[in-house]
Amino acid sequence: MSSSLGANIPRNLICALLFSTLIYMLVTLSIGVASAQETGSVEVSVNGYDGSSVLTAALVDSNRSVLENKTVNSPSFSFSNLAVGKQYIVVVKYKGIDYTTPVVVVNQTSRKIAIKVSDVTNSDDNVFVSLYQMAIDRGDNYLNVTEYIMFTNNGSSVINNASIKVAMPTGYKRFIWDQDCCFKAADFGFFFTPTEPLLPNATKSINFAYRLEPTTDEYKLSKQFYYETGDVYVLLNPNDKLTVTDHKNLWEQGQVPDNGGSLNVWGASSFYKGEDVSITITGYKGGAELNIVWIGTGVLAAVIVGAVVYGFRGNRGSIEKLESEEQALTSVLKQIDKDYAAKKMEEVEYYKLRLKYKERLDKIRRKIQEQQPRKETSKSKKSPRKTPKGTK
Question: Is the pTM of this model over 0.70?
Answer without folding.
Answer: no
